[in-house]
Design brief:
CATH architecture of the largest domain: 3-Layer(aba) Sandwich
Number of strands: 12
Radius of gyration: 18 Å
Shape: globular
Order of helices and strands: HHEHEHEHEHEHEEEEHEEE
Strand order of the largest sheet: 3-2-1-4-5-12-10-11
Largest sheet: 8 strands, mixed
Number of helices: 8
Structural class: alpha/beta
């Protein structure tokens, strides 16, 4: 298992306050995504139960699943993310149905060694893979399979993919964050399928911008076929892929990547 790098520690722990601002933008859209997840689970005969939320961040998937009657266990190595997740669960009245565990998903079996029952479903949302090695991702999904029951369902939600990365290429954009502005600069190498991104944050001071800090991350961007093969090796049989999990839009180069797989 590869070690955490300085940039990962800064992005996910030291300046988690900045990345949480980005996560919070996605909260209003999460309810629709979770509705789509729940509908698919119901079609598989799973009308309740326990869901494992990999790299759960500040809890948006777990909390919305709990609001729909599921129990959720979220795992993340970022203590600030988990503290915010617990606050969100309390604010929305689902603390009793959620559990947030601090730990590295690459050691999932060790982190959840006290887990007494198998999971009914597993969710990996918002490109929670590709930060380490392909072997690390394979191990994580394999451990998740061992912790899940026969017939369980796995979702990868809103995952970046090769087709979209090639289409967008390299460039920059800005994002408004209330009293802040974030400048995103991205470089994508289609030969290595590596995407490097820098987020630079500024605070508004009247008509001026005051520099706050910047965080950097790099990921391996999977293609649909590559990730499907990896999931198959980990014990998950891919059933389909949608461009949007809520609307079941067809998958394509300009859509998201939302894989649905079942325990093989």
């Amino acid at each position: 298992m590869t070690q955490m790098t300085d940039w990962q520690e800064k992005l996910f722990i030291d300046r988690a306050d900045l990345s949480i601002r980005i996560m919070n933008i996605r909260w209003p859209y999460t309810e629709r995504s979770v509705e789509g997840i729940v509908d698919i689970l119901n079609e598989h005969g799973i009308k309740g139960g326990h869901v494992l939320d990999l790299c759960c961040g500040n809890g948006r998937i777990s909390v919305h699943l709990a609001k729909r009657g599921f129990r959720a266990t979220g795992v993340d190595f970022s203590k600030p993310y988990l503290e915010d997740a617990r606050r969100n669960a309390e604010r929305l009245g689902v603390s009793d149905a959620t559990r947030f565990v601090e730990g590295d998903v690459r050691d999932l079996a060790g982190v959840l060694r006290d887990q007494g029952e198998p999971f009914d479903a597993v969710v990996s949302a918002w490109t929670s893979i590709g930060y380490y090695t392909i072997e690390d991702d394979l191990s994580t999904f394999r451990q998740a399979r061992r912790l899940s029951r026969e017939g369980s369902v796995l979702f990868t939600i809103d995952t970046q993919h090769e087709g979209r990365a090639v289409q967008l290429g390299s460039g920059s954009s800005t994002l408004e964050l209330d009293d802040m502005v974030m400048l995103e600069k991205t470089t994508y190498d289609p030969i290595t399928a590596r995407k490097d991104t820098t987020w630079t944050f500024y605070r508004r001071r009247g008509r001026d911008l005051e520099y706050i800090d910047e965080v950097y991350y790099k990921i391996h961007v999977y293609s649909l076929s590559e990730l499907s093969r990896l999931l198959g090796e980990a014990g998950w049989r891919v059933e389909t892929c949608y461009g949007n999990i809520a609307t079941r839009q067809a998958f394509g180069p300009s859509t998201g990547m939302n894989i649905v797989a079942q325990a093989a």
